[in-house]
Design brief:
The chain is built from 9 helices and 7 strands, in the order H-H-H-H-E-H-E-E-E-E-E-H-E-H-H-H. The protein has 251 residues and is α+β, with helices and mostly antiparallel strands.
Length: 251
């Protein structure tokens, strides 16, 4: 197919019917709560198709998570900076805005504007954590469950991210949910209705002089971690053009 218009058409152009029906269709529709024909093609295009035994998620040379996890990384980045936890930005918006010349906003863009033009759709997740009296449950960090009859999409076994040797193990089952305002938003649903609505909010955001919007929720786009980090670094260079030269100086 020359120009696939949705996820199903894109998948079929890559792997044909047998693999699509066996590995992709049920898992995708369970994850997103929508038919594959209602989802954009780019969701499946972000993953490489291989005909080898390489089981890496992407083709990138370096793949993984920071040593100690993202929490440790963020703690180091925020060292020496005042951090307030348990604060709802929208409950204290005026006070918090007065603390800085610019606000970096990474939450839902429609909520920033009090859903003035309508509510964007997201997918949420429910996490079920279990401690098991065994040193190993599934042999690797992530196992995906593609059948629609199984309510969760994957099981995470945390110790395998850093090759832990503990006698017990902790697993987390992920259950996909339709998002409501009381839930945590995880995945933007990029269909035609939502993309048109997001464009309205995006045009409003461009007029903001003291706010910077970014990330999966503010950009209403399904990002992986490495593009988000890359976009953040690019934004820093735009705002502080001399930053790279200063950081690259060798005494």
């Amino acid at each position: 197919m020359v120009n696939p218009q949705n996820l199903e058409e894109q998948a079929l152009s890559l792997v044909r019917t047998d693999i699509y029906n066996t590995l992709i269709k049920e898992y995708t529709e369970k994850q997103w709560g929508r038919k594959a024909t209602e989802l954009p093609a780019f969701i499946i295009k972000r993953l490489p198709i291989r005909f080898t035994f390489d089981n890496n998620y992407f083709n990138d040379l370096y793949q993984g998570i920071p040593v100690g996890g993202y929490t440790k990384l963020i703690q180091v980045l925020l060292e020496g900076t005042e951090v307030r936890l348990g604060v709802n930005y929208f409950y204290n918006r005026k006070e918090l805005n007065e603390l800085a010349d610019q606000v970096i906003y990474t939450e839902m863009i429609d909520e920033y504007y009090d859903y003035k033009h309508g509510v964007l759709e997201y997918r949420s997740l429910k996490f079920e954590h279990t401690v098991l009296d065994t040193p190993n449950y599934q042999g690797n960090a992530v196992a995906n469950y593609i059948d629609s009859e199984i309510p969760y999409t994957r099981i995470i076994e945390h110790k395998h991210f850093e090759f832990g040797e503990q006698m017990n193990t902790v697993i987390t089952k992920e259950y996909p949910l339709e998002w409501t305002k009381k839930d945590e938003p995880y995945y933007p649903v990029n269909n035609s209705r939502n993309d048109q609505l997001f464009k309205i909010y995006k045009d409003m955001a461009r007029l903001e002089e003291n706010a910077i919007f970014g990330g999966r929720l503010a950009d209403y786009k399904y990002y992986d971690m490495h593009p988000v980090v890359g976009l953040a670094l690019k934004k820093v260079e735009e705002l502080f053009p001399d930053y790279r030269n200063q950081t690259m100086q060798i005494p």
